[in-house]
Amino acid sequence: MPSSVGYLTVAIIAAVGLFLLLWWLLVSGGDEAPWLPAGLAASVVLLVALSAREVVMRRAWTRYLLEQGTHEKAKSGSSSIRTSKKSFSASLHSAALRVIQKQSTAADSSNSTPETHLGVAQLCQDYLSSSEEAMRSGNLGSEKGIAIRAGQQRVRALHKHHLLTWARGHSQALAREAQHRARIFEKIETANRAIESIDTALQTYPGEFELEESKAAILEFIASVKVAHWIELAERSAFKGHYRRSIDRYRDALFYLSQDAIKDEVRVAGVQKIEQEIQKLQSQLRKRGRPRTEESTLEPDDVR
C-alpha cells in the first residue's frame, strides 16, 4: 500500500510552494491582499490531491482484498494452511478444517462484514490448493485420501457460501453508496465497482441466479442514471430556447434507454414520453421558420 505520510508530505510541500510563488507574484504586482488568492489556490491543490488519493485507494481496495485478504482473524489460519502445502499430515488436515469451520461460524454472525466472508473464502481456497497438491503427490494412504476428499467437499461448500455472501454484501453496499452519490460520474463509478465484485464471484460460480439478478439491477441503475442525466440537459436547453440542442440530448437519452439493461415496460414508457417532447420541440422550430443559429459547443455539464 502506498505511504500516506509520504504522499501527504509531498502534497503539503506542493501547496506551500504554490502559495509562496503566487504570493510573491501578487506582491510584485501590487495586489493589496496577495495572501487571499494564493491561499485559495494552495487549498484547491491540497484538496484535489487528497480527493485523487481517495479515489485511487477506493478503486484499489477491492482488488487488494481479492489478492491478499485482510481479515486479521484469518491470518493465523491462513499461515497454517500455507504451511500444510509442504507437509500435509493428518493432524494438519484436521487443524486446517477446524480453523476454517471456526472462521466460518464467526463470519456467519450478525455483526460480520463482507470482508470477513472474503477472508474465509481465501482460507478455503488455500486449503483446497494444498490438499489437491497432497492428493497429487500420491504419498497418502487410502484412509487419509478418503478423509481429505471428504474435507474438500465440505470446504468447497463453505468456499461457495462465503464467496457468494461476500459478493452479495459488497455489491449491495456499493449499490447503496452509488444511489447517495451526488455527481453522475461518482454514481456510475461506484456502481461499476459493485459489478466488478459480482463478476469476480460469477467467474468461479457462473449461473448464480441471485447474482445475475443483482448485476442486472445495477446495470439498469447505471442506464437510468445516464438517461435521467441527458433528459435533464435536454430540459435545460429547451428552457433556454436551444431547441435543436435539446432534441439532440433527448436522442442521447433514447440511446441509453434502448439498452438491454432497461426493462421493457420502462423503456416503452420512456421512449413515448421522449418522442412526444421531441415532437413538441420540432413544432417549436417550425413555428420559428428559420431558427437562429445556436452554439454547437456543449455545456460543461455534458457527460457521456
As a percent range, the share of strand residues is under 5%
- The N- to C-terminal Cα distance equals 33 Å
The residue ranges in which pLDDT falls below 50 over 5 or more consecutive positions are 69-74, 83-87, 291-304
Q: What is the number of independent domains? A: 3
Order of helices and strands: HHHHHHHHHH
Based on CA atoms alone, the radius of gyration comes out at: 28 Å
- Bulk shape: flat
| Structural class based on helices, strands and sheet pairing | mainly alpha
Major sheet summary line: none
Blueprint of the fold:
Elements: H1 4-28, H2 35-68, H3 75-83, H4 90-107, H5 114-137, H6 142-180, H7 184-204, H8 209-239, H9 243-257, H10 264-288
Task: Characterize the structure shown.
The protein has 304 residues and is an all-alpha fold. The protein folds into three domains: 4-68; 72-206; 226-288, Methane Monooxygenase Hydroxylase, Chain G, domain 1 (Up-down Bundle), CATH 1.20.58. The chain has helices at residues 4-28, 35-68, 75-83, 90-107, 114-137, 142-180, 184-204, 209-239, 243-257, 264-288. It is flat, with a radius of gyration of 28 Å. The two termini are 33 Å apart. Mean pLDDT is 79; it is low at 69-74, 83-87 and 291-304.
